Amino acid sequence: MKIVFLCGSLEPGKDGVGDYTLLLATELIRQGHAVKTIALNDRHVKTDVYSVWHDKETSVDVLRLPSLQTWNERMIKAKNFIDGFNSDVLSLQYVPFSFNDKGLPFNLSSKLNKLSHKGKWHIMFHELWGGINNSKTNTLKNRVFYFLQKKCVFHNLNAVKPFLITTSISAYQTHLKKYKVSILPLFSNIRFLNNHQVKQNTDIQAVNFGTFSGELDKFKNQLNWLKKVAEKQGKKIIFITFGSGGQFKLPSLNMAKNIFGNENVSDLGLLPAQEISNILSRSDIGISRADGLLWGKSGTTMAMLEHGLPVVLKGTRADLQLSVSDFNYQEHLYFCDDDYNNLPQRTHPVDALPKVAKQLYNLYTIKK
């Protein structure tokens, strides 16, 4: 099968959906398919970039079109790239801010329809619109903005008429119930490295990476729950964080230092994927800013779970929605209202990418 993936950016390590796209593309190539990738609105380049991206011994052709160019210029170049390939499927990886700076890509469908081809459209919704998990606390301004984002989704769906629609979590599937939507589980962008990492101490090493949540009270509950778990074991928590952290990084780190002690908290900043895998491999438990509703779309949560870590989510167990997948991750998810008398245990690492790639191909063939 010939597939062209389209997303916003393909700057390695700078765009989660872009990294997801490159990994999925190379895995499908390993499984015998022909795949190319296009970044339609890349803010990391100033001119057209034709390149080859490598994962292990597999490579995929990449076309990156800069956001500085007009959409008309980019669509002409993308169409030439696609027509020369004669693809069976065009797969759009949808995130609203990837295609519009304000997160309102109303005209996306008219641009996509210029890429007329013999194949069919697939849309993967990585995100829909804001406010899905906290609608009661949104301001009027936010509610109006999220309503417009919702209108964008339905407008683009009705105009493009994809033969397949997928998303990673059941909550999003429910919001798109007027369409037939299939679940395609997320996989980790941080690949597990089988390098036999060994812990250097007997304390409980907890990891947090990515962006801290603004819900500081819920983060505090997660930290306090971990402290109780450690105290029951006669141990202490060694808290390690890495990644950009975001605007709530400083208050979150101060909170962790107040609970665990300054000497037990480390901020390692931005790290390469290999080093992240090394740290996850020698840690005991992860802390996620995701809750029971949206955990299945969190790349950092997936990375921790695939590395065998139990993960503490925000909120309470009553909020947990199970993911439709083969991996049974819900058995390794914990909440602050769970019993803290037993230390959650690591499990065997999982490589979800090959299964997800096969699942996508099966969806393509079923829908043919």
Q: Which structural traits does this protein have?
A:
368 residues; alpha/beta; Rossmann fold; 8-stranded mixed β-sheet; 6-stranded parallel β-sheet
Characterize this entry briefly:
35% of the residues lie in helices and 21% in strands. The protein has helices spanning 16-30, 71-85, 96-99, 108-112, 140-160, 170-175, 216-232, 249-260, 273-281, 299-306, 353-367, and strands at 2-7, 34-42, 49-55, 58-66, 89-94, 120-125, 164-167, 182-183, 204-211, 237-245, 265-267, 285-287, 311-312, 333-334.
Overview of the structural elements:
The protein has 368 residues and is of the alpha/beta class. The protein has two domains: 2-187 and 356-367, Glycogen Phosphorylase B (Rossmann fold, 3-Layer(aba) Sandwich); 204-334, Rossmann fold. 35% of the residues lie in helices and 21% in strands. The chain has helices at residues 16-30, 71-85, 96-99, 108-112, 140-160, 170-175, 216-232, 249-260, 273-281, 299-306, 353-367; strands at residues 2-7, 34-42, 49-55, 58-66, 89-94, 120-125, 164-167, 182-183, 204-211, 237-245, 265-267, 285-287, 311-312, 333-334. An eight-stranded mixed beta sheet has the order 3-4-2-1-5-6-7-8, sandwiched between helices. The chain has a six-stranded parallel beta sheet with strand order 11-10-9-12-13-14, with helices on both faces. Helix 1 (16-30) links the parallel strand 1 (2-7) and strand 2 (34-42). Helix 1 (16-30) packs across helix 11 and helix 7 (216-232) runs parallel beside helix 8 (249-260). The longest helix has 21 residues, at 140-160. It is globular. The mean pLDDT is 92.
